[in-house]
Amino acid sequence: MTHIAIRHLTKEYGAATILDNVSVELPDHEFCVVLGPSGAGKTTLLRILLSQEAATRGEVLIDGKPIDSEPQPDRGVVFQRYSVFPHKTVLANVMMGPQLAAAPVTGRMWGQKRRALRERALALLDEVGLAAHLDKYPTQLSGGMQQRLAIAQALIMEPKVLLLDEPFGALDQSTKKAMHRLILDLWQKNKMTIVMVTHDIQEAFTLGTRILMVDKRRRDPQAPEAYGSTITEDIRLDPAKKPPLSVVEGEGDGEDAHSMRAIFAQWRARAGDAVISDEVAEGLKAVV
Ligand SMILES: Nc1ncnc2c1ncn2[C@@H]1O[C@H](COP(=O)(O)OP(=O)(O)OP(=O)(O)O)[C@@H](O)[C@H]1O
């Protein structure tokens, strides 16, 4: 069970307010997708969830306990790029995290423990489709393969929460689709709670059980940094009743709330209220 509670979270950098009083509860096994304009504070929110940044005010609780002030293996992360070790092979990359956790200085592990870890790493690499590339280095892999490796690297730590910061943003469409199938499969199997940032509305609808829009509610043209972002839309999607993705068309790129609302409206018009939960239908009445 992994329940995330974000309570009255505010983040300021000097005089600039980035996040302003953000509160949300994410139940166990939620696949939460965060959309919002560039600079809205999406990555900042992920970094706070990861303890790479401290909140100015407010708190984050996982299963009722405030998160540790340092990054811990209970929360894994995959960024858009550069999260694998370039000088290590695929297999060594995946074994590295548990080795460093067991022996922070040397990163070495011996005997039975090492054999067990190797077995686990091999199974995971098989799951993400990299079993045939164990001895390659990241530069010898395609972008999609590098992201598969980054996902395996995060999952070997058995995180309760997986944080994804535009992990598929740099991939071509067909690789992206394959990665979507993979991440949904891993999410089901591993029963983790996922929080993912993306600019891609189609991706949000494909993957999410919950979509949060992060944006400013108030703007002062004279003082653009005066107000921070908060959650302006909170949509629950019932995975059992999702329409085919072809229903989610539109030009929106997740950059603005307006295009997202237009897509919700279009989705409802084509698919009907039956495909969305009552709660979502209520939410839609409010925004459309
Ligand atoms: N360490 C920092 N010091 C000062 N300002 C920062 C710092 N980190 C982020 N910011 C500012 O916080 C704001 C939000 O940045 P963040 O990266 O969270 O936005 P984002 O929504 O993820 O944007 P994008 O979609 O473009 O990636 C930006 O204005 C950024 O300049």
From TrEMBL:
<feature type="domain" description="ABC transporter">
    <location>
        <begin position="4"/>
        <end position="241"/>
    </location>
</feature>
<protein>
    <submittedName>
        <fullName>ABC transporter ATP-binding protein</fullName>
    </submittedName>
</protein>
<dbReference type="GO" id="GO:0005524">
    <property type="term" value="F:ATP binding"/>
</dbReference>
<dbReference type="Pfam" id="PF00005">
    <property type="entry name" value="ABC_tran"/>
</dbReference>
<dbReference type="InterPro" id="IPR003593">
    <property type="entry name" value="AAA+_ATPase"/>
</dbReference>
<dbReference type="InterPro" id="IPR050093">
    <property type="entry name" value="ABC_SmlMolc_Importer"/>
</dbReference>
<dbReference type="InterPro" id="IPR017871">
    <property type="entry name" value="ABC_transporter-like_CS"/>
</dbReference>
<dbReference type="InterPro" id="IPR003439">
    <property type="entry name" value="ABC_transporter-like_ATP-bd"/>
</dbReference>
<dbReference type="InterPro" id="IPR027417">
    <property type="entry name" value="P-loop_NTPase"/>
</dbReference>
<keyword id="KW-0813">Transport</keyword>
<comment type="similarity">
    <text>Belongs to the ABC transporter superfamily.</text>
</comment>
<keyword id="KW-0547">Nucleotide-binding</keyword>
<dbReference type="GO" id="GO:0016887">
    <property type="term" value="F:ATP hydrolysis activity"/>
</dbReference>
<keyword id="KW-0067">ATP-binding</keyword>
